[in-house]
Amino acid sequence: MARSDTSTRRRLRGRAAERRPEHLTERRAKPPIIELRHATKIFPGGHVALERVSLRVDRGEFVFLVGPTGCGKSTLIKMLIRELAPTEGEVLIAGRDIATISNKKIPQLRRRIGTVFQDFKLLDSRNVYDNVAYALQVIGASRSEIRSKVPDALRLVGLGDKINNFPDQLSGGEQQRLSIARAFVNHPPLLLADEPTGNLDPETSIGIMQLLYRINRTGTTVLVVTHDREMVDKMRRRVIGLADGRVVRDQSAGMYSDDENTTEFGLRLRDEMGLEE
Predict the structure, then answer these.
(1) pTM of the entire predicted model
(2) Are 107 and 183 in contact (CB under 8 A)?
């Protein structure tokens, strides 16, 4: 009798497994790292910076955000880090509407978003090592973690031999690399770069893009705001264009190989821009 009961229970469990809902038997796809749903931003006085913007950026993408001055690019970036909240619509990071998070959790959100600012925002009184270490100190990283991560980040950006230099002892390109090291030291899933090649010569600009490409290949999603049309064309990545606060262009990448390594990527850019190796 006991043996019969056991056999019956096994058959019932087998049937139940066959009827399990799909969402319990298959792994759900992860939500996009960035998603805007009809996001609108109207400033006091009535200026419409963004109007019903809907877009999504999937994990691991490399995307350019382009458009003329005043089109809403900076507003969009500020909304992604909750510096600004939308007047209407939703802004989601990794599937979560960030307008719903409390103010005390905003720093936690920003720890998972690396931001490279146009004006670098480096600490002039701290050397290269301490500028990067500061990004870990503010999130409570241990000393051992800082000693491990900072040298790795500086080697990645080519500043491993300048840890004792101060920002005013670096070139513009080196300062931008330092800014990128600080943004990436915690290996965030999303990195935002606001005009990372602004005021840099073409050769230095290629080096910066090569570095961002290397970071993207580690799995970090990269969103670059830029006016550099030539660089955008040569990069052959997805381009989202804004004009008057609206999305007017969303062009897929196309014409490039996912297998292109960092060195091949840099050589191709130099060749297409007519620069000597």
Answers:
(1) 0.84
(2) no
Tell me the C-alpha distance between 205 and 153, whole Å: 19
Tokens of 121: 């925002």
Question: How many CB atoms are located within 10 Å of the residue 180 CB?
Answer: 25
Task: Give the model confidence (pLDDT) of 118-147 as tens digits.
Answer: 888 999 999 999 999 999 999 889 999 999
pLDDT value of position 170? 96
Determine contact, residues 221/60, Cβ cutoff 8 Å: yes
DSSP string spanning 148-163? HHHHHHHHHTT-TT-T
- The domain 59-82+102-272 is placed in CATH, from the list 3.40.50.10380, 2.40.160.20, 3.60.40.10, 3.40.50.300, at 3.40.50.300
Residue in 102, 83, 69, 93 with CA at minimum distance from that of residue 41: 83
In this predicted model, what pLDDT tens digit does every residue of 76-89 receive, in sequence order? Answer: 999 999 999 999 99
Residues 6+ apart with CB under 8 A from 114: 183, 184, 186, 188, 190, 191, 192, 220
- Residue 88 phi, psi (nearest 5): -140, 165
State the pairing for strand pair 238-243/34-42.
unpaired
